[in-house]
């Protein structure tokens, strides 16, 4: 661990910042169908890191289909175990983030967070809103905690960009096992619902439409986010 924090970027490092952000933005908005083997491996890599046994994996064409399966599992009293979104964030993201932040001057850390100009958070909001709208009031009340357990790797691209830039360009140090696990989740996995004993993995959207302001938007009343099958 360096004794002094990095306080200034040289011209070469400055020039690479938007290059690395484009790399991770492109990964975030990828609409290729997932490779199920790679997606399952990406998720299974994380469970031992957060001190859990590898889960049973289920695949779905969309988060709407996964939600319907959750309803079925709950009705059949299937043991899901607890939702583990907080474990993901504490033991994976927070650990990587705090370790890198400690090696940088505060001004550089803030700049890295402000570099992304593509509002991926709006995609996350729309996905959650549409999931909620697809449920009846009774289903929503029963599944609210499960919707909150949804993990959206495209939203993690900002963290991927920051970590990649800090490690590859600024030679910062971090837990390599956790960094590799985070990269694989963003690169290879669609949305997923992680539980202690199983994980529901969804395919990526087949269409992500954005307007000139880089906000999710589609013409003619079509959804900005569309999957390979209808909600049904």
Could you characterize what this model shows?
The protein is mainly alpha-helical and 232 residues long. Helices cover 53% and strands 7% of the residues. The chain contains nine helices and five strands. A three-stranded mixed β-sheet has the order 1-3-2. A two-stranded antiparallel sheet has the order 4-5. Strand 2 and strand 3 form a beta hairpin. Helix 4 (85-101) packs across helix 9. The longest helix is centred in the first third of the chain and has 18 residues, at 11-28. The model has no long low-confidence stretch (mean pLDDT 84).
Briefly say what this structure is:
This protein is mainly alpha-helical and 232 residues long.
Structural class: mainly alpha
The count of DSSP E runs of length 2 or more, i.e. the number of strands, is 5
How helical, in percent, are the residues? 40-55%
Low-confidence stretches: none
Side by side, the strands of the main sheet go 1-3-2
Main sheet makeup:
3 strands, mixed
As a percent range, the share of strand residues is 5-15%
Separation of the first and last Cα atoms: 53 Å
Oligomer: single chain
Global Rg: 19 Å
Q: What are the secondary-structure elements, in order, as H or E?
A: HHEHHHHHHHEEEE
Which key phrases capture this entry?
53% helix; mainly alpha; two-stranded antiparallel ribbon; globular; three-stranded mixed beta sheet
């Amino acid at each position: 661990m360096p004794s002094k924090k990095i306080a200034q970027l040289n011209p070469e490092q400055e020039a690479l910042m938007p290059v690395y952000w484009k790399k991770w933005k492109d990964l975030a908005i990828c609409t290729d169908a997932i490779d199920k083997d790679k997606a399952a491996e990406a998720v299974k890599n994380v469970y031992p890191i957060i001190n859990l046994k590898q889960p049973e994996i289920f695949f779905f064409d969309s988060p709407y289909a996964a939600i319907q399966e959750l309803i079925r599992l709950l009705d059949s009293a299937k043991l899901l175990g607890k939702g583990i979104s907080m474990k993901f964030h504490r033991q994976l993201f927070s650990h990587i983030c705090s370790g890198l932040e400690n090696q940088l001057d505060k001004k550089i850390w803030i700049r890295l967070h402000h570099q992304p100009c593509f509002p991926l958070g709006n995609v996350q909001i729309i996905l959650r809103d549409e999931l909620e709208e697809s449920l009846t009031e009774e289903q929503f009340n029963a599944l609210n905690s499960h919707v909150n357990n949804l993990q959206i790797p495209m939203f993690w691209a900002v963290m991927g960009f920051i970590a990649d830039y800090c490690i590859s360009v600024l030679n910062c140090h971090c837990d390599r096992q956790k960094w590799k696990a985070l990269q694989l989740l963003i690169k290879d996995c669609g949305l997923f619902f992680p539980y202690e004993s199983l994980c529901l993995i969804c395919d990526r959207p087949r269409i992500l439409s954005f307007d000139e302001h880089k906000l999710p938007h589609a013409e003619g009343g079509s959804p900005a986010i569309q999957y390979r099958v209808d909600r049904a």
